[in-house]
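Let's practice the habit of predicting before peeking. Look at the sequence and jot down your guess about where helices and strands might fall. Then scroll down.
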Amino acid sequence: MSDFFQPISGFDLPRYAGVPTFMRLPLLGLDDQRIEEVDIGIVGVPWDGGTTNRPGTRHGPRQLRDLSTMIRRLHPTSGAAPFEMRNVADLGDSPVNPADVADALERITGFYSKLKQRGITPLSAGGDHLVSYPILKALAADAPVGMIHFDAHTDLFDSYFGGFKYTHGTPFRRAIEDGYLDPKRVVQIGIRGSMYDDEDIVWGLEQGVRIIRVEELDDRGLNEVMAEARAIVGDKPTYVSFDIDSIDPAFAPGTGTPEIGGFTTREAQRMVRLLDGLNLIGADLVEVSPPFDTSGGTAWVGVSIMFELLCVLAGAPGTKR
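Done guessing? Here is the structure:
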């Protein structure tokens, strides 16, 4: 047993007991002296000010924390033991402002900038997908990064409602325009659903974004598509963003913009596992909306994917330790 922070075992305290933290890990504030020991920080971003349709993702981190008490120590197929490989802690929630979008984005960027200064790799739980933008703004402040993005939607739209630029449908357009993402190293997997128009697709392709619709994934298979994604991002710094609506609503109904025809949970697990060995600088799991699945089933899917992401982050070459 290492001297790293360890989750509380279900053999020591029932999983339904105690104060829930992400994966039953210690909860540390940024002013805690032990923060310097942290390699990977799990962070909630309880904000949905960028939502344009069904709200509720501001409540996602709390439900995800609760369901994460079922996560155990060891990965069942790879054998990865992330809590033995890296020092992992729950760093609480990022500051947000539910009444002001611009201020919320600045608060989130400020929080993640502090993590970057400490060399902490963040694994984040949203919140709507706009939260990825301020996170990328902090992590890619020095140079643009690549991204592998699992989603039903491109989130490459220019604006909503007469020119409003910051919604959960625009984060990666803004991140490319502002120099935080290298579009030629961005891969989007699982795109599907009815469309307003094809403006987002056309713009993305013009920038060099690789957009893989779910039909192409079906035709080519997971292994071939993920091999291409790995080749595109290469060995340079890469971020992973996983929208829960990439998974079919039969498995994850608790989200704001569900689209039928998505991944099964097993397919999602396999794709995340195929990120192993990449130079990952962080990841997020977004768009879990508890009001649309009070059973917690969607949140359980979400934290299970977060554990898969944690395992590949723990093995990433750039992660501290």
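How did you do? The beta strands are 40-45, 88-93, 121-126, 145-150, 181-191, 210-213, 238-243, 280-286.
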